[in-house]
Amino acid sequence: MEELFPAMMATLWESSKNITNYSHIVPGEQSVEYFEDLNFLHTRLMQLNSVVFIEYIFTERLIVDIEYYTELLKEYEEPCGDKIEYLLSRGSDSFEKHEALFLKEVLDGIIENCTLINAILATVIPQEEE
Q: What is the pLDDT of residues 63-83, one digit of tens each?
């Protein structure tokens, strides 16, 4: 489980850069699925913040929130990672076990949403010519 937070951060960081740079060119036929995935990612980031408590006020501006919150997570990556590692390793009572399961589900959900978003954006990101 120690690798879960770094994996989530790497995927989120890549997605955030792609979202910021390429959201405006997602074709209409993919836009519904894309914005549903953005909405789920936004919700997962709010859930993550309920655990790590970075001072950020989420708005309804999905792309802006995802970009800014990702930058804050990157800035505080080490203390957040330490806290998440600690919370995932606990489990001496029922509450701690459920809290760890919730956190794992949130991190897995962020990775899944980022993967789906990156797959959609991969179809519109210009490929470098070789």
A: 999 999 999 999 999 999 999
